[in-house]
Amino acid sequence: MTAFTRISHSPIMERGYIFNPHIVVVMDETLLADAQARPLEDLPRGGVALINSARGPIFSEDQAGHVFMRINFTDPALRIIGKPIVSVSAAAAAAKLCGLRKQHVEEAVREELSELGVRDELLEKNLMLMSETYDNTPRYSIKVDEERVGAVELVDPASGRVVYSDVFAAGNAVHRATGNWRVFRPVVDYGKCTGCKVCFIYCPDSAISLDAENKPVIDYEHCKGCLICVVECPIRAISSVREVEIFA
Amino acid sequence: MREVDMLTGNVAAAWAARIADVDYIPAYPITPQTEIIETLASWISQGLMKAKLVQLESEHSMLTAAGTASLSGARVFTATSSQGLLYGFEMLYNIAGWRAPLVLVNVSRAVAAPITLEPDHNDVLAARDSGFIQLHAEKCQEVLDLILIAYRVAEDHRVMLPVIVNMDGFYLSFTREPVYIPSKTDVEEFLPPYNPPHPFRAGRPVVKGAAVLGGHIYAYFKHNIHESLLRAGDVFKEAAAGFREVTGRFHSPVEGFLLDDAEYVLVVTNSFTSIARKAVVRLREKGVPAGLVKLVMLRPFPSSDIMEKLRGRKAVAVFDQNISPGLGGVIYNEVAAALYHVKNRPETLLSAIGGVGGKYTTVEEFEHVFHMLMHPEKTQPGKPVFLFRADELAHVQTALRLAGYTGEET
Amino acid sequence: MLVLRAFHKVLGPNVVFVNAAGCLTLLQVYPYTPNKSSWMYTAFASAPAGAQGIRDALDILMEKGRVNSFEDLKVVVVTGDGAAYDIGLQSTSGAIERGLDFYYLVYDNEAYGNTGFQKSGATPYGSATATTPPTERNPTGYTGVKKDLFEIWRSHKPPYIATVAPSHMVDMLRKIETASQFKGPKLFIAFSSCPTGWGFDPSLSVRISRLAVECGIWPLKESVYGKVRHTYIPTVLKPVEEYLRHQNRFRHLFTPRKQETAIASIQEQVNNYWLEAAKNEGFRITVAKPVTIAPP
Description:
The complex is a heterotrimer.
Chain A: E1 23-26, E2 48-52, E3 59-61, E4 67-71, H1 74-80, H2 87-98, H3 102-115, H4 120-136, E5 184-188, H5 198-202, E6 208-210, E7 216-218, H6 228-232, E8 238-242
Chain B: E1 3-8, H1 9-19, E2 24-27, H2 34-45, E3 52-55, H3 59-71, E4 77-80, H4 82-87, H5 89-98, E5 103-108, H6 122-126, E6 133-136, H7 140-155, E7 163-168, E8 176-181, H8 184-190, E9 207-208, H9 215-247, E10 254-257, E11 264-268, H10 273-285, E12 290-295, E13 297-299, H11 303-310, E14 315-320, H12 330-339, E15 348-353, H13 363-374, E16 385-386, H14 390-402
Parallel strand pairs in B: 2-3, 4-5, 5-7, 6-7, 11-12, 11-14, 14-15, 15-16
Antiparallel strand pairs in B: 1-8, 6-13, 10-12
Helix pairs in contact in B: 1-2, 1-7, 3-5, 7-9, 8-9, 10-13
Chain C: H1 2-11, E1 15-19, E2 38-41, H2 47-63, E3 74-80, H3 81-87, H4 89-97, E4 102-108, H5 149-154, E5 160-164, H6 169-179, E6 185-191, H7 195-199, H8 205-214, E7 220-224, E8 227-232, H9 241-244, H10 260-281
Parallel strand pairs in C: 1-2, 1-3, 3-4, 4-6, 5-6
Antiparallel strand pairs in C: 5-7, 7-8
Helix pairs in contact in C: 1-6, 2-4
């Protein structure tokens, strides 16, 4: 999922996709390694990759001159709101980098969330989260190169034959590693497990298979962390653990 | 042995489906097409034809079933008109996008509101952007012939697109004309069996119609339809040559009549072409170098044939039996675009709109169009001329009065 | 998802799923598919007609000797409740009337989920949706009734209809197996708890389904040629509140103030249903007490 925002004092003569961002907010650091996502593809020299991460230095730079800023959005959200909903955190951090003042961010968050029906205690928690993230985001002055207008190469898409939009590669979705959707991972305690197979039956993504002893084997490449197995295990042999691994 | 019989356009269409050995006929009744499916139902019930005819509960469902059956490897025939075509309209784009070859006979009928039964071409022309190949018939023989040619073109692996064959309601659908019915062996020689590359079968899983997210991927597939449609024009000519070998009858995307030295030419489609022919003959008798161009193929639009037949003419009129309100005639605008870059294009390009709602267009009205071509100073360039007679207008005024319409604002 | 998995397990790989627009449509996004079977996306209103085309084509081609019986496929329509209860009801009725030999699996999440959870014909009384939001002036959310699709289908007297729920997998698998012995329409309505739309943690998906069955909100039953039998009797109905209170789409019935009348009316509907069913089939049931409101 991607979204784009342009902020300017002068009239904006563009629309839609941003190909030369000053800031890319990466809400899920596992996307950095995802072949389909490639979030940093168009980041110019000097541009900032603002990454939701619990580890690594706050500031770093790579050989291409990209600036990496790592801030933990998820765990404060879990602590303050109780759910990994990080939109206000990302907004606060990005706004600070743009030089917007905290009171304006607060006004914006209040208005947006109220329109969505978020009120009272939940609204205050979001504002608290916003404020903490804003304060924790260091100030930084972004310097990117002037936008270069490149030449475009047009080609004829004609192929000379009928091209069908059918999908012939049955079951090829298995190549999409959706395990990086997880915020929590289920872990089986094989000492307790009786091999009742309830978890296997209830996994909606077919991410649990059975080994030779009928014990569950979780496919962590595809487990999305819905945690139905944790809830349904009759003897609570599956626990849920905060997911912090990056998928290589 | 060649059989000739007096057949209505509807029955001719049914015969084409029968000798093409179609497998599946999803059906839904609508005037003036219903005789087609009644005839087929009767034949199948008597064991004269081995096919499955199933009545669906709406044209939208009918067209859906037609498309998925084709994707399952069945040769599909279906028919509708006007309101039915429009009711199932989204499916036309789907069927083309699925690359499901089939033949859909449209028996043209003017579109509600007001609701009516007589023919014009607003229904079939609305489908011109759907990705269907479009063929229009002047005579009942052509209805049969074009359906057979349509199967061969549609199922060709270089094309793989559906075809609409249009015939005018009443003027063709319920009019009997002499029709030669090709023999089974002739048809077998001309039309190979339907053999799509990836039909639904156990052991060969395939996903059809999956969502495509990503403009460039969608655009690529859509462009492929366009490319295949353009190729279909050449495949049609190939097929027509083969058809002539087997039956002796020749069809081409654009046909000329008394065209050789014609200075004044009328472009026309469908059954009223026959009336226009008479006008041309009468004018020739009076020494006027008049000629006629009939469009058989509307999609792919036969630009090069049009350019070739109309270049160097003094004045050309396009007769549209349709109207795009706020613009004028549909075919006029397409012909004009084709002629724009032609160096010696006609000095005058006139738009004549008539026959809307099936309004009968007399020989005199067609002759009148030619008179306007000969005296272009009396017309406004680019502004469509409506063929509407004084006596007809008087009749309308009487009807309005009888209906209690006073014309006074309240 | 669980239901789809169950169907696949019982029916095997020689299946073509015919789908109409809905949440599950996006299981396939070009060029990926999770299916090892075939899938046909049709149009919103006409999945049953699409199924008709495939079934008829395979039948006539087998009859004409152009396709072998081992190449035959089972045809399964898969749609959400939007397609089944509303826009596709017409084509479903037609397919049942024609005795089409197919399966129909409806995943019922009680709204148009794919487009952001707007009300559908399957939305129950009291539910908040994007087009029936609870406000000061209209505090209850949706004030209409959930269409009884089971009864609409049953009036056609098809060979087999069943309601299923992912919390009761044995019941579901048995029903799919029972259905497979019939030729003709075999129709399923599956309770599909939707974390995003209903507002609860995904881990509770199966638990919510279990509550729906235990509170009597989602009766598990089957109909064979029109004759109904409940396959699971919740002998002591849990109060509907237990089911409603865990879902954000019903939260407005509890805060800022508890809407006793609305909740009581839901309870009463559930009670009446089960008392009637008990009478018809001769089983015993204890209904939950509706909350009574003392007059002011």
